[in-house]
Amino acid sequence: MKFFIDTANLDQIQQAKELGVLDGVTTNPSLMAKEGIKGDAAILAHYKKICQLVSGDVSAEVIGTDFATMVKEGKILADLAPNIVVKVPMTADGVKAICHFTSLGIRTNCTLIFSAGQAILAAKAGATYLSPFVGRLDDINWEGMQLIRDIADIYTIQGYETEILAASIRNSRHIVDAARSGADVVTCPLSAIMGLLDHPLTTMGLEKFLSDYNKSQA
Ligand code: G3P
Q1: Is the whole-model pTM more than 0.90?
Q2: How many domains is the chain built from?
Q3: Of the residues 48, 75, 87, 96, which is catalytic?
Q4: Fewest CB atoms less than 10 Å from the CB: which of 72, 94, 109, 215?
Q5: Please, which residues have CB within 8 angstroms of residue 184's CB and are 6 or more apart in sequence?
Q6: Does the annotation count 72 as an active-site position?
């Protein structure tokens, strides 16, 4: 399973990169706004900075909601760097745009996925990645991870090549469950990645090893 970081924060991307396990980055308009980036020129410049920081795929989302605007924006985004993946919402115009981008060889990430039916449509359109939002389903008392399992089963049965990118990941437990559920990629905040390191027995065990070593030096 590939690890993407779900942020537009350059410091956090750098920290995940230094850990050595980072395969890519996902962003969305909310994450860009959180970084205080204002205006289209600044947004495009920020995507370029992210693409220079990481060699893996970087998802950059279109803002337009009609086919023509999505296509126009997607081409501008795809021209920024070879590792840009154009993120497109799951709407009728979005599916049309993904089909169009597929025919042009532009890679896509179909976002805002909340059902297996939507996942089938995105795969038929040729999306490179599919982003089911696990945490937001949990928020409304659905079992978000069940959607990952359902899509993984369907994609295996049908032989779809679209990669399942588990999104809206809120904690380290979600990462473990996504791996068990058949996700190809997980995109998560830095805190969830770093949380995988933690176990009290590891901390206690290390303290004991170091104290025993120090005793042997006395
Ligand atoms: O990038 C999309 C997704 O990961 C959003 O997560 O926490 O805002 O539901 P969240």
Answers
A1: yes
A2: 1
A3: 87
A4: 215
A5: 1, 2, 163, 164, 165
A6: no
